[in-house]
Structures are given as structure tokens and as C-alpha cells.
Specification:
This protein is α/β, with parallel strands linked by helices and 140 residues long. It contains six helices and five strands; from the N terminus they run E-H-E-E-E-H-E-H-H-H-H.
Amino acid sequence: MTTPSSTTTAPARWLLLGDSHAACIGQAARAAGLPFAGGPVGSGRDFLGPFFDADGAEIRFRAPEGARLYREFLDALGLASMSELSVPVVCTFGFSAHTVAKRQNWDIHRDPRGDFAASFLGSPYFSALVRATVRGTLAF
């Protein structure tokens, strides 16, 4: 869902970038009369691994559809790049914790009864696994 700033309302006061959760935020903002530009640029799983490249003051989304939407959002704000942005960014990348938390992702770390070792969830190993899984979001 693309939600450019309306030409009949006040200029956009913020930029919305995100996954499917951004659509709900955009709908709520519209209902509240809060002008913004932006919306979803992909699905939550698209933002777990590497999904963008930094090029000087600009970011480039790797997925063609995400790149197209991002460019439309900046155009709606009259900007050549994110470095020119003068309004806040609301970003939902990383809200897809349910993807990371899927039981199947963690079964290999369970004992035969299906339990984790008492120290597993607080271990540096677990933290490293989660950080590796969401590395794209953290990099952004």
C-alpha cells in the first residue's frame, strides 16, 4: 500500500518505512489526520538478512519493488535522497519477531524432552544466533 502525502492536506510530517505492519500504522495515521509519506516496502522476512546497501548519503533497497516504492516515497516528499530528510522516520523493520521465534528455528537446540538448557536463553550463543538472524534489520 503506497500512501503519498496528500496534495489537499498539510505536507507530510513524517516518513513511514516498513513491512506489512506499516500498512496498519498508515491506516491509523490517515484516520487520525496525520499527514505522512510512505508505507510498506516489503514483507517482514525481507528485512531479516541483507536488504539494502549504503551508498554515501543514500540507501538502496536491493529488491526492485522495495527500491521503486522507496523512490516514490522520497519523491512524494520532494527529496533526492534520505540525507535531505527533515521529518522523522517511523520504521517497522524488525517487527517480525514471530518469524525469528518459530519453533522450527529452535528445535535443534532443545533436549529430547523439548526443553532448552536452563542457561540457553541467557547465553551469549543465543544472543549471537538472534543477532545473526536479524542482521539486516540491525544494520539498517
